[in-house]
Amino acid sequence: MTRRATLYRMVLPDHVCPYGERAKAMLEDDGYEVDDRHLTTREEVDSFKVEHDIPTTPLIFIARQRIPGSDELEAFLKDQATARSHVSTS
User: Fold this and answer.
1) Structure pTM?
2) Mind listing the pLDDT tens digit for each residue in 30-44?
3) How far is 42 from 39, CA to CA, in rounded Å?
4) How many domains are contained in the chain?
5) Does residue 14 sit in helix, strand or coil?
6) How far is CA 33 from the centre of its chain?
């Protein structure tokens, strides 16, 4: 079964958010197929943050779960790995 994630991240002409890059790499390393959606202008980024009530990007959606930020994603992926290891050893 393919695991999918949608990633919204800032990719401006003069700046690519390192946290968005980190989130994408973590998802891919964990075997997710990533729908990588770029926010390409400062106005688009600001509007997106207001719309989703978040202070910063990236914003990740996995199976309808909203994960705001790369640190939160890291914790989510660790929790998922722990849950999978408990299932496989049961």
Assistant:
1) 0.90
2) 999 999 999 999 999
3) 8
4) 1
5) coil
6) 11
